[in-house]
Task: structure prediction
Amino acid sequence: MPVINLLPKSVSELIAAGEVVERPASVVKETVENSIDAGSHRITVEIKNGGVGYIRIADDGCGIENDQVPLAFLRHATSKISSADDLDGIETLGFRGEALAAISGVAKIEMFTKPHDKETGTHYIIEGGKEVLFEETGCPDGTTIIIRDIFYNTPARMKFLKKDSTEGTAIQSVVERIALSHPEISFKFIREGKLVFSTTGDGKLSNTIYSVLGREIHSTLIPVSGSSDYVSVSGFACKPVYCRASRAFQFVFLNGRLVLSKTVTAAAEQAYKDSNMVGKFPVFVLFVTVPPKTVDINVHPAKTEVRFVDERKIFTAVYYAIKNAVSTLDTRPEITIKPKTDNFFKMTAEKYRQTGLNINEEPKPEQREIKRETSVLKEDNIPFFLRKDVLDYKEKKENENSDLKTEDEVSSKPPVVEAAESRETDKRNEQEENISAEYNPEKEVRLIGEAFSVYIIVEQGNQIYLIDKHAAHERILYNDFKKNNKIETQPLLVPFSVTLTEAEHTAATNNTDILAHAGFEIEDFGGTNIIVRSIPACLDKLDVGEAVVSAISTLTFGGDVSTKEIDDIYHTVACKAAIKAGFITERAEMLSLAEKVLSDPDVMYCPHGRPVAYAISKSQLDKYFGRIQ
Ligand code: ADP
Ligand code: MG
Result:
């Protein structure tokens, strides 16, 4: 029969330490939060050996009174609450009074601390939970805490630490997040002797983002703000084209505290749904404020996932705040034309004439020739209702309509007996509406040409569009694959073999059904070889070896096969099958591509998230050329 023992204090403290002190990054988080709670304006974080060897946090906060210092290292010693009532509506970061006790149990701590109104401060050393030194000393206002040799007395835990560089990166991400959540505090982060970033502490989130995340990310952000009921949301989010391949740049602060919330993330990502790409994630720094009572904050200190009393309200507030910011941009990006030189605009008509170019001069005979030729080629001189394609369309519609009496039509209309003639007229009107909807001259796309074998140039309504032909085609193919949820296949007359790596071979032979779904029929061919029997119908046979390997390597890196991996394969095939920049494309093909791009709002961005088309408006050009002011 096992005997139940009450654990000695030293053991129970080590267990508790395990909960608070998971790794150096959690030590940094706890101690920096203490500095914030102490009302600091400047906080410096310095680490060496990934924080495992050395962490120094220096602040200019309130400091600790001499006689209170040893108390700070006792369990459940805290200056932040004194009764159970205080637990409601708590606003400081730490309140459990566990962190310093826990850290001092598994590391060597040295502290210098001095309240502003005192002449002298305290120098205190505690190692493995045992006080080593406690003396008065001269030191600056505030607190400096140095933590050395984390887990030096618990070798088993030490083994779980990752490489110094990994631990250092985890710390950096903690300090970044804390700095972002406190634009009013100036943070300095020094890693292995190098200053990584320092923030001004001027209270402006935009400046903090610039210092912490860098100029590049900063330049992609737009402000977000909104509120509904008791939820208010503010911060910054990226323009859709700048969504990234990972969620590394998503920050959610709830009542000033860094949290993870599936609800907030989902709401933010949903707001980008139609304007970014699968596998791409928005960048955002969001501050969500709610009354403290509507959130479950009293969770484990090392866990940051929060729960809200009403998740729906939070979702709605975040979704609309971002959607409103993003949707104002949700059009094709416009190119702004800047005059090359100011002279161009400043030139007077008189001066212009003096330059020797004379616009009144009659065109030279050969110029006139060319002009006439182009105007003959132009189709827009023919009234659209006489154009062959319109007539064909009308005819087709008429044929369709003559045997049109689907069940739907019969059942969905109220059973009113109508004169045959009036029904006929109705039908005709409907038909004409359809035609004019389809042939709205404003919507008509006219091919101007192609530049650099990369960009298709078309005109529609009052806009000229520059379309990246590869990106556009890739997106269209990808959308098709997604819609059909498979890729049509074509058998090869002569199957071929491919040699793979061990990992690729395992992934391929374990997932033949998924590959078949994506149009690749393969068989194990012994060793690390496979035989490819059929390939996606849209692929050019020349590219196919490479395409097979790319598709398979998606599976290798993906681990478990999920929709994401299948999407990745669709993407790979779309990329390989799409017309390539730099190759010649038929005019008809260009036109049809452009029509697709401009009529389908789903073709805004290529699967890599790059824009597919840019617009230049006629009014911009008119302004540029001084036709309008
Ligand atoms: P908690 O933060 O949950 O109160 P800690 O163990 O982290 O518990 O800290 C214990 C106490 O030590 C705090 O309540 C605070 O009074 C004091 N303290 C810790 N760090 C600082 C600091 N940097 N400046 C001033 N006081 C501090
Ligand atoms: Mg604390």
